[in-house]
Amino acid sequence: MKTRTRLIAWPAALVAAGAFLGGPAAFAADQVDLLKADQMAGQWVMPAGNYANWRYTTLNQINAGNVAKLQPVWTFSTGVLRGHEGGPLIIGDTMYVHAPFPNTVFALDLNENGRILWKYEPKQDPNVIPVMCCDTVNRGVAYGDGKIILHQADTTLVALDAKTGKVVWSVKDGDPKLGETGTSAPLVIKDKVYVGVSGGEFGMQGRLTAYNLSDGKLVWKAYSIGPDDHLLVDPEKTTAMGKPIGKDSSLQTWEGDQWKNGGGATWGWISYDPELNLLYYGSGNPGTWNPVQRPGDNKWSMTVFARDPDTGMAKWVYQMTPHDEWDYDGINEMVLADTNVNGKAVKALVHFDRNGFAYVLDRTNGMLLQANKYDPAVNWATHVDLQSGRPQVVPQYSTQHNGADHNSKNICPAALGSKDEQPVAYSPQTHLFYVPTNHVCMDYEPFKVTYTAGQPFVGATLSMFPPQGEKNLGNFIAYDVNDGKIVWSDPEPFSVWSGALATAGDVVFYGTLEGYLKAVDMKTGKLLYKFKTPSGIIGNVTPFEHNGKEYIAVLSGVGGWAGIGMAAGLTEDTAGLGAVGAYKALNNYTQLGGVLTVFGLGE
Amino acid sequence: MKTRTRLIAWPAALVAAGAFLGGPAAFAADQVDLLKADQMAGQWVMPAGNYANWRYTTLNQINAGNVAKLQPVWTFSTGVLRGHEGGPLIIGDTMYVHAPFPNTVFALDLNENGRILWKYEPKQDPNVIPVMCCDTVNRGVAYGDGKIILHQADTTLVALDAKTGKVVWSVKDGDPKLGETGTSAPLVIKDKVYVGVSGGEFGMQGRLTAYNLSDGKLVWKAYSIGPDDHLLVDPEKTTAMGKPIGKDSSLQTWEGDQWKNGGGATWGWISYDPELNLLYYGSGNPGTWNPVQRPGDNKWSMTVFARDPDTGMAKWVYQMTPHDEWDYDGINEMVLADTNVNGKAVKALVHFDRNGFAYVLDRTNGMLLQANKYDPAVNWATHVDLQSGRPQVVPQYSTQHNGADHNSKNICPAALGSKDEQPVAYSPQTHLFYVPTNHVCMDYEPFKVTYTAGQPFVGATLSMFPPQGEKNLGNFIAYDVNDGKIVWSDPEPFSVWSGALATAGDVVFYGTLEGYLKAVDMKTGKLLYKFKTPSGIIGNVTPFEHNGKEYIAVLSGVGGWAGIGMAAGLTEDTAGLGAVGAYKALNNYTQLGGVLTVFGLGE
Questions:
Q1: By 3-state DSSP, what share of chain A in percent is helix, strand and coil, each rounded to 5?
Q2: Which of A155, A587, B184, B339 could form a disulfide with B267 if both were Cys (CB 3.0 to 4.6 A apart)?
Q3: How many whole angstroms separate alpha carbon B280 and alpha carbon B272?
Q4: Which of A 252-281 lie inside 8 A of B, CB atoms?
Q5: B35 Cβ contact partners less than 8 Å away, ≥ 6 residues apart
Q6: pLDDT surpassing 60 at residue A2
Q7: Element at A598 (helix H, strand E)
Q8: DSSP string, B457-487
Q9: What percent of chain A has pLDDT over 70?
């Protein structure tokens, strides 16, 4: 990493390590101001730690000098097997832990090694399970105004009293009979709660929905695809690459009624910039996965949305992968960082897309500043044209070009992308992004498919494998958006499907599919500590402070798309949308699990 | 504890801490001589560590001076929830871990934090689950002659190649359609493997069976109840309390054909004295639980058997609870210790029975030397008459006396005994027994029941609760058989359902139902260390050495009879044969799990 002057703007207090404004004791559950999340170093009040999606802590008790002495201090089984994505929230002395289906939520007492204060277990129809494309995962709960908000598999959004676990309100956000399911973490902003929906493999209609935090009443619903009044756009004021999107911007890019089963799911992490009053999220693949069957750019699938959280109106949009031919969902999280890009200080939005490009946009207006590959294996496009914003597709790897019933070989990345939901961490100290990546390629053969409500609407057969001549399926990398380059890269035998955590202690944490929690030096990537947790880690590393001591928590429990073979008991190589074959060797390292491990420095 | 001269006889090498004859590297899997188990301190080659059922290690790297620094070093999820009884074996560099139904067995590489060398998952009919009275537990595998022997839930006894996991032979030991299931750990002695059977609540016919270790061929089968040729007894030579048992000793104590559904299951731990060439085990309750319905002493239910392992012939028997009225199974393990009893050196067999008495017998001839209460709450009998060997029952607590359809109140202990399967540890240094106990009483109402093959044959409704005016449901105690007294007693909120481990490091380990692994001072019971494992512990603490370092392993995963409410999702207080109500508060501490945690001293 090079040393140079950096723009340090937002929020300034964070950069001086430890300069936070209060201890955890100061924050009772009903006093938490989410806008001040960055100043509550001891707690973790929203899934990513702050609205900017940093996954960074100013805590530095655990640091590069002592992290080798880290050890588990207590553990907690959720009582559920299969993939455990997401991570806990920590509000005051209480930790809130969620589980995959049936989506049990626990309030654990940090004063008693995680004694259970309350438990909420929704009653859900298990028929939702076959409609969940990529394991029965859930990415965590949100907190706001004394309530814990859970997005259940069956799309029910439920608000629980954070002190008692009692249901305050409950609304049905979607319909599993149409292939709609809930897997994503909601986000609370001011007096509303926002939630996306899963189901891109079932031809559903993706949208972000806002509900009143107080009573669960619907406020607005903004679709990814469809007529303008569904999209919540202003043809004149909503822009793409700095220009108005115009009338019927989505409908014009679909043939006939195909948009009605067009997908554009919204199951990623949501960000928010309080100063601009804009929230950011991405939309997923268009339906079907057979590109030949759905001509057009299929807007606004594969798109970053910047919306006014109060009205839902889109300020700008940017489509990463027009007319997707590979299932390169655009749902990956948007990280908001005020940093240098190409040598110039900007209010950046940084997005490591499934398609293998790291996009940097001006988040005030959606202008594309940079889009470089963050895995050298990426081959489906030579580059992204910064003027048009479009990728330059290599015909050899174009499944549209090669046509249906042709098996296009060795496309990199695979459908699960150079990165999937596993979130990056950003350090305002190093200004680097710490990215858990997949190093996986695929063969992709589209075939004709007919839409049937609630049935898979995929239309492609896939195999996945490491890049030719290689063995490793993943890397954990540090990425610099100033010059758009990888700074260091730690190879991993399997995809890194866990969310990273950057710390003021010069250490970055992540988990591996074999089950290791790893701590590496922030500047060099050097391994400083590892511990084998009970099962493969696809959860996100979460820091907190309790009674003046820093701790690190992470859920283990192998699964998710990468671990779907183990989670669902599939063995055919092409099962799990192609993932089963690639990750078979995982069986030699780990078994299904569901355990939270809390690490500390001991006495 | 008092200081005095002790008989230290067997095996002498053990007593000098650390004076073992070789390191783990010296023992390849095909070289292990089970008779020398005591001299292989680094390994754990049979369920109790040695044939004498001591659960004692001469390892002393982890000791009272440093145990506070213990920490988990790696963990492993079995991928199975529900109760995890038993513990792993350690042979050379390999750890063999088993799981509850479906009884998966794993060979884990100790050189790589438990990487999976092989995995064996039997295909079993899940209809066996409802026939398992008290959770889908399994108490572990046996090792012998390069084979790992597993007793499956469906009673299949299977021998696996210890190096590859491939099936060498497989035999069906019983029939789940008759209520027969496999839960117990087999034991290998010389060229045979011995296995008991579960099903006392289903009116099956209990027996111990010997198979050839080489090919699984049946060698002998010795029933607990029935005609002499079923019992494998010699009416003249087999003795009870020093006298020949005579002809038809069992049949004479049953009315008509009732013996045919008489139970006497054999699912406890087996011991062996190589010098006497006798194996020891206990039989369980007679069927039904309604005593009014089955007059007589119901021999040889509730009995200690001493048998010749080559022929199966019984040398002596001793019935603890003639005509059981409380389900005080006699299956608890027999610990073989050469120690002082009543001031005199004897070859003792020490047995902490479900009925609350600690029996000490001369294991050469079955003479009763001592039988004292090891829980002050025990009230069903005033004492055991040492001449007749019979308990003196208190009429108030006699469910026979009170009659069917009468609810006899406040009987102590409850049906699950002052101790159940959770094995004790014995230290040849302190000559004390470390006993995980239940401190639980019951109301017991017998009712008439008709035998139907494969259906519960219980005939009693139970409630369980702590002794009147008390809160704690368990104690972990040190017990001295010289004077037949409790030396110290550590109260626990719940039953201690984990097996103990005594060490040459002056530390005793046990696990709790909330999930704590605890280390206490051997001489005082003082708590020196605790760690909250992922789930409640009903597994047995197991030591081993690897690359010159001592480790402690334990399975967590709440369940078993005490945890049956959580394991099977039961909520009625009288469900789980009365256990559900007593242990309801466990829900506030732990959830289902299935994780092996390995502890060490760190760097």
A1: 10, 35, 55
A2: B184
A3: 6
A4: none
A5: B51, B274
A6: no
A7: strand A595-600
A8: ---EEEEEEPSTT----EEEEEEETTTTEEE
A9: 95
